[in-house]
Predict the 3D structure of the following.
Amino acid sequence: MNDKVVITFRLECEKGELKQPVILILKKEGKTTTICVDWGIEVRTVYRGMVSVRTRFGDKKATKSLNWGTSIVTFGDIVKEEFFGKPAWVPSTYTFYDGRKSKFIRKLIDVDRFVIEVKSVDKIKMTAVFDIRGLKNAVEEFNDTLNWIKE
C-alpha cells in the first residue's frame, strides 16, 4: 500500500474490426506515465516482446511502423531465451508505448481522432479508431498533477 496519486484515462475505440472494444489507456502513477492499448486479443511479436505498430494522429499521415513493447523483458530473460530457446516474454493482449510519452500525449490531445494498427498472432491486421475529442479538457482538469500540458 502506498500514497501515490494514480490518474487513469481509459478510452474505448469508436470503431474497429474486433468484437470486443479496444481500449487506449493513459495512466500517471507518481512520476511514471504509462501509455498502452488493450487489444483484447493476443498481438504478434516481431522481436523479443516487441510489436510493430502504426499510428495516425488526426488527419496527419500515418507513422512508419514503430516497435511497442508487450511486456518487460530483463537481461536475464534474454539470456534464458538464448540458452533454452524459450520466449522471454508472456503472450500479451497489451501494447506499451516506450518512446517520449510527454510528446506522444501532447500530440494526442491536440487532435480529435487517433488511429492505431497492429497485427494479431494470426497476422490479421487490427485497426482501432478513437474519437478523443474532450480528452484535452479532461487532462486540463488534472494537469496540476499530470503535468502533461505545458503552458
Summary: DSSP finds four helices and nine strands in the chain. The mean pLDDT is 83.
